[in-house]
Amino acid sequence: MLQILGEHLLVGGINKVKKHQKPNPVKGLTGGIVEKELPIHVSNVAIYNAAQEGRSVGIKTLEDGRKVRVFKSNGEMIDAKG
User: What is the average pLDDT value for the chain, to the nearest integer?
Assistant: First the structure.
């Protein structure tokens, strides 16, 4: 699951925290320890290569003027941008 919240992302299974919650009979909430996910900033998200390793990404301009993202470690092309 991925949800974009401005400059933050809510990614499923990432950045889980446990919160102690008081019971609230008016809202029908039971007390106890609740586990939930918090958003992370987009700068803390890494792109993984085929070897499942997070790598730095750069932008390279092709001969026809298109810009593509490439891994800085080996120059492998990720995708093409308009």
Answer: 84
CA 10 to CA 35: how far, in whole Å?
A: 14
Contacts of 31 (CB under 8 A, 6+ apart): 21, 22, 23
Across 55-77, b (16+ Cβ under 10 Å) vs e yields beeeeeeeeeeeeeebbeeeeee
Angle at 39 between CA 9 and CA 1, to 5 degrees: 55
- Stated as kind and residue range, the H or E segment containing 59 is strand 57-61
What stretches of the chain show up as alpha helix (H) in DSSP? none
CB atoms within 10 A of CB 38: 11
Question: pTM for this structure?
Answer: 0.53
